[in-house]
Design goal:
The chain is mostly helical. It contains 7 helices and no strands.
Length: 217
Amino acid sequence: TTSTWVMMTLLLTLLPVGVYAYTYMTPGMRANARKNNIDRRISYAMSFIAAMASADVNVDIIFKELSRQPIYGEIQKEAQWINRDIDLMGVDTLTALSDAASRTPSDKFQDFLQGVVTTARSGGKMKPFFIMKADQYMKERRIEEKKLIETLGVLAESFVTVVVAAPLFLIVMISLMATMGSGGTDYIMFLYAIVFGMIPGSQIAFIILIQGMTEEV
């Protein structure tokens, strides 16, 4: 029939578009996920690196030890790539760090690696640099957490207004209108929509929003 041919045509048209969109967007989405993972953990990883540097541990050993710490997520994987280049590929430490800087999706981690390379090649001391970067990223972390707390405070006020006060106001108003006039069935449907649609939907929306915000910090 005509409708069947139309459906098949739409399917054959949309399927390649969907596959192309998926293959086009997936690498960027994965890179962005890795970037967020690195940025969330970089302040703690810098503290680890600074502690190792304070014990006068060489840079290559620091990244080797970092590659054994799964708690740092994608930073551990970045360190594993650096360690692979040094141990298996025979690349010198600074070149491996420079390659990692051009490869990482995180601007913060890239800035750190480039700083390591620049400091080492200019003859600077690594220990003060590592300590300085650890302090910098920890301060940035505190600022981000403070902003998050302020934003959550605003969301809490919005939650009370949207999820608690507004539905109660609508329920009271609709109940009064139902008792004063006709069309009781319509009013009951409105109440059902508020109780089983608006309230749960707004709660789920707030949960997803807050979860997404807290995952970024």
